[in-house]
Amino acid sequence: xxxxxxxxxxxxxxxxxxxxxxxxxxxxxxxxxxxxxxxxxxxxxxxxxxxxxxxxxxxxxxxxxxxxxxxxxxxxxxxxxxxxx
Length: 85
What we know:
The protein has 85 residues and is α+β, with helices and mostly antiparallel strands. The chain has 2 helices and 4 strands. Strands 1-2 form a two-stranded antiparallel sheet. Strands 3-4 form a two-stranded antiparallel sheet. β1 and β2 form a beta hairpin. It is globular, with a radius of gyration of 14 Å. The N and C termini lie far apart (33 Å).
């Protein structure tokens, strides 16, 4: 949050994941730590949840966890939209 805009997508995704009992941890990572993780994503209004497949030459498959995060957020948005009707 210190270096990145606290966007609506990030905030609502965090809420959607908490509703599913998925803990969200934000912290800075050293480049040397990247190999310790199975995947990464970023959020934006247009892309919603966008998997990252490469960081500094380190390639990543899209893990099931990130696919699940994408599904949870899509469902969250569908439920929100239907609540407005």
